[in-house]
Amino acid sequence: MANTSEIRNGLCLNFNNDVYKVIEFLHVKPGKGPAFVRCKLKSLTNGKVVDNTWPSSHKIDVVRVERRKFQFLYGDDEGFNFMDNETFDQTMLDPKLLDNPKLMKEGMNVDVLFDSDKNIPLTVEMPQYIILEVTYTEPGVKGDTATNATKPATVETGAEIRVPLFINTGDKVKVDTGSGSYHERVKS
User: For a surface tag, which of 37, 71, 141, 150 has the fewest beta carbons within 10 Å of its beta carbon?
Assistant: First the structure.
């Protein structure tokens, strides 16, 4: 058992008979009244996001997690297949364990969080940014870059993202895997 002062982003905990991961939190100390912690939690079993508030010094049940490196092999109708980088064992994981599965690139290394006690996978953490090639997008109009207008673009994994008008087919872009959004163009 821990208390709310130990809450941080990425912490996994048991809450309402489910395992949740802290997405964001805020310690609040109002001028009047006791301090409290406001959290946004994501369920690792069904992906639901809930908000919760605990009084300061409230006891929470922390889940011990183990982080293992895996390599993404391929995805099919049944799920996503990964290989453990240490033991070379292959395992198939459910798509609901990933935040943006369409951004997964074959050969990409990811972290899989396992519940240390039960040895079951909880979630897959991708790198914060990945570099993908744009395979199709409409050509931009010359001189139309003064505004923050965007257009749809398909990247090499098949995912569709919004990019600025100056991005063309064949350009490489850096994509934020958390939000699935364009970050910047990468010079080749």
Answer: 141
Q: Which two tokens stand for residue 105?
A: 């690139």
Judge contact between 140 and 185, C-beta under 8 A.
no
At 102 the three-state DSSP class reads helix
- Burial class of residue 30 in the structure, from the number of CB atoms within 10 Å of its CB (0-12 exposed, 13-18 middle, 19+ buried): exposed
d(CA 82, CA 132): 20
pTM: 0.74
pLDDT tens track for 60-84: 999 888 889 999 999 888 889 999 9
- Domains of the chain, each with CATH number or no CATH: 2-62 (2.30.30.30), 65-125 (2.40.50.140), 129-186 (2.40.50.140)
3-state secondary structure of 84: strand
| Through-space distance between the first and last CA atoms of the chain, rounded to whole angstroms | 50
Phi and psi angles of residue 9, each rounded to the nearest 5 degrees, phi first: -60, 135
- Residue entry with tokens 């964001």: 24
Token couple for 169: 């087919």
Reported as a pLDDT band with limits 50, 70 and 90, residue 142 is low
Amino acid at 31: G
Which of 60, 22, 53 has the alpha carbon at shortest distance from 36? 53
Report strand pairing: 160-164 vs 121-125. Answer: unpaired
Alpha-carbon distances, residue 102 vs 15, 92, 111, 170 (angstroms): 29, 16, 17, 19
